[in-house]
Design goal:
- The chain is mainly alpha-helical and about 70 residues long.
- About 55% of the residues lie in helices and about 0% in strands.
- The chain is built from five helices and no strands.
- Helix 2 crosses helix 3.
């Protein structure tokens, strides 16, 4: 699977952990791990919550090559 999202990179840039994000969202750390490794993707509601927590746009969370291919 191609890299769809940039979540892991954004977390690193903001010095946040996947554990922090899982606690903020009320999901398991393994769920966030799957998002970070692109083995699954969050639904749109969760994605909106993530963008708000990290103070970035939803578009900033996605790989630009993926967006252009849509």
């Amino acid at each position: 699977m191609q890299d769809v999202n940039r979540l892991k990179l954004v977390l690193v840039e903001q010095k946040k952990t996947s554990k922090w994000l899982s606690e903020e969202l009320g999901v398991s750390p393994s769920t966030v791990s799957k998002w970070c490794t692109n083995s699954s993707q969050p639904d749109m509601e969760t994605l909106a919550r993530i963008s708000k927590l990290l103070n970035v746009s939803i578009e900033d969370l996605y790989n630009q090559r993926f967006i252009k291919s849509m």
